[in-house]
Amino acid sequence: MNVMVKNEGYNAYHKENTVKHEENKLSYEENKKNVLKTNVERIKEALEKSPFKTEEEKESYERKLNEKIKLGEKLTQREMDYLQRTNPMLYMRVKRVQMQREMLESRLKQCRSKKEVEEVYSQAMSMVHKKDPDKQLVMSAYNNVTKEFKKTKDYKELPEDIEDKKKVQELKVKKQRKEISARVFGIENETNCYFNLKC
């Protein structure tokens, strides 16, 4: 009888814990469903919220975006986000092209002469594989970034060749020496240079 009482006490305790466990399990499952449902609703709302008021605006935006891609122009973060949301496959292709564009841009900025700029550009173009499915996009991007770089002040200040740069520097040094000796000693002519500097 003592054993029966213990078993009955155990069974009652076990039954009570099982009921509590089942209630917790149900509330966890319900909570999980509710969280998933709200997340799905938020995603739908975000997707449905279009920055465009009409379908025509959307089509116009997409046409302009496609034109920028074809011309190899740099896309803004907003444009990249739009592509990622609406066309993930194209986004991946464009992302790769944009990365290659940025790499060429950084290499162009490191060039020390206009001749070197042309060499870097030619090398980049020759590295585009003929079977690359995005060959046209990559080549357009390279053309665009090089064209933009050539419009910058940095490019315009570059010498034609590195040898030209050395000659320019030598001429600047000679000119500075002439100016210094003219100011200090009142010498106009380099043959009268008192200290026999290479004026």
What does this molecule look like?
- It is a single chain.
- The chain is mostly helical and 199 residues long.
- Among the domains are: 61-157, no CATH class; 162-192.
- The protein contains eight helices and no strands.
- Helix 3 runs antiparallel to helix 4, helix 4 (88-109) runs parallel beside helix 6 (135-150) and helix 5 runs antiparallel to helix 6.
- The model is unreliable at 1-5 (pLDDT under 50).
Assembly form of the protein: single chain
Strand content: under 5%
CA(first)-CA(last) distance? 123 Å
Tally of DSSP helical segments: 8
Mean pLDDT: 79
Radius of gyration: 36 Å
Biggest sheet, in brief?
none
Classification by helices and strands: mainly alpha
Runs in which pLDDT lies below 50 for 5 or more consecutive residues are: 1-5
Dominant shape: elongated
> What letter string, H or E per element, gives the SSE order?
HHHHHHHH
Task: Report the count of strand segments.
Answer: 0
Summed up:
This protein is an all-alpha fold and 199 residues long.
Which features would summarize this protein structure in a list?
199 residues; mainly alpha; 8 helices; 77% helix; disordered N terminus
Write the SSE topology.
Layout: H1 2-48, H2 55-71, H3 77-86, H4 88-109, H5 114-126, H6 135-150, H7 153-157, H8 162-185
Helix pairs in contact: 3-4, 4-6, 5-6
